[in-house]
Amino acid sequence: MSRDLFKARMAMLHTVEFADENPNDKLRKVIGFVNTIREKCKALYQPSEHVAVDERIVKSKHRSRIWQYVKNKQTKFGIKLWVWPDSANGYT
Fold this sequence. Notes:
The protein has a 3-stranded antiparallel beta sheet, with no helix packed on it. The longest helix has 14 residues, at about 30-45. The two termini are about 30 Å apart. It has helices spanning about 5-10, 30-45, and strands at about 55-60, 65-70, 75-85. The chain has 2 domains: about 1-45, no CATH class; about 50-90, no CATH class. The chain is about 25% helix and about 15% strand. The protein is flat and about 45 Å long.
């Protein structure tokens, strides 16, 4: 998908009323959708006894302050996240 096509599609994506938007919120166009997914994940997830705290790197080469380089990882460039993965079902 080209950059121009992606920007055109993102400009048309709205799941919230225009009057209710907060102009300072970066997720303002999709906050309703994000909140619904977040609520469903919290309601449906039942952790097993096989969970751990792990460090994960999401591959990315964008320019940001949260971008990191870790030379000993397979994915060297990206955003470092601390996750709570469940080994019984693969849920992160």
